[in-house]
Amino acid sequence: MEEKCVPYPRKGLYWLLTIPLLFVYVLIAAYLWTVGIGFFILYCLLFVFVSFFMSYVCVYWECSYVGKFAPCVGGFCLPSSQIARLWKKTKRSKRIYNLTLNLAYLSFFGIILFPVYFLFLSGFFYLLAYMGIVIIYTVLFMLLICPVCATRHVCPGGQSATALQAYINRKRDHQK
């Protein structure tokens, strides 16, 4: 991990990108409440699952953000770095890591994909707007947040962002 990345240097930019997305989550949760309490509860539980499972991943990666602000994508696992303090002294296991990582990503994609059906039912425009927000947020996050994150070398999203940035730089250098 790079020490110059701790504390995270673009915290303001992170919040500028993430707060509108958090608002979208709240709107979706409110809408799911009107559709059915079970759907609302399941959606909310996905956030809890991501936070819990990513906390073990944080410890396994020896993340330098444990107990501090962590610039995680979508704000899904902001509590993870705090929960990770509970795991800090536990023996790390590759098997448990693989399990928690897969469960975290399953929950992560659940948060993104679960509302799609309901948004489609409410109107195709809502689905398009949601997908647009998710795509724009993801691209901006990968271009602006990931490049200065201390875990970019172990995080799959950070590795993708690093590869994307290298590709963009090669294209730009080639055009000169």
Q: Can you give the helix content as a percent range? A: over 70%
Overall form: globular
Number of separate strands: 0
Describe the largest sheet: none
Short synopsis of the structure:
With 176 residues, the protein is mainly alpha-helical. It contains six helices and no strands. It is globular.
What does this 3D model show about the protein?
Helix 4 (94-122) runs antiparallel to helix 5 (124-145). By secondary structure, the protein is mainly α. It is globular. It has helices at residues 11-35, 37-60, 80-87, 94-122, 124-145, 156-175.
Structural descriptors:
176 residues, mainly alpha, 6 helices
SSE layout and pairing:
Layout: H1 11-35, H2 37-60, H3 80-87, H4 94-122, H5 124-145, H6 156-175
Helix pairs in contact: 1-2, 1-5, 2-3, 2-4, 4-5
